[in-house]
């Protein structure tokens, strides 16, 4: 009976070691893929957060027609489009957007003043 227990223990240990080794060999590509997915998700969340923050900041500013401005964000680059009343309002919208954390650049080619 003792011999059987030692044999069973040796077999269990060998099995556990083989699983451990297999996991270390195969885990790296999975980990890299998971890290890439997390990074893409973080970018999407950051872009969504930036868009929301810019939009709410534009709407909250009484000197900007924030409801007339469309905001889109891609990898931290914010695009503003729509119509504002004056060039000064357009510039204020751009400066407000640049002041938001995470914004790397602002494109306001689609933002037109109607003055």
From TrEMBL:
Keywords noted in UniProt: Periplasm, Repeat, Signal
Keyword field contains Repressor: no
PANTHER family xref list: BON DOMAIN-CONTAINING PROTEIN
Signal peptide: 1-27
Pfam families on file: BON
Gene Ontology CC entries for this record: periplasmic space
Location, primary (coarse class): periplasm
Protein's name in the database: Osmotically-inducible protein Y
The keyword Repeat appears for this protein: yes
Cellular localization per UniProt: Periplasm
Ranges where the BON domain occurs: 46-115
Top-rank taxon, per record: Bacteria
Listed InterPro entries: BON_dom, Lipoprotein_DolP, Transpt-assoc_nodulatn_dom_bac
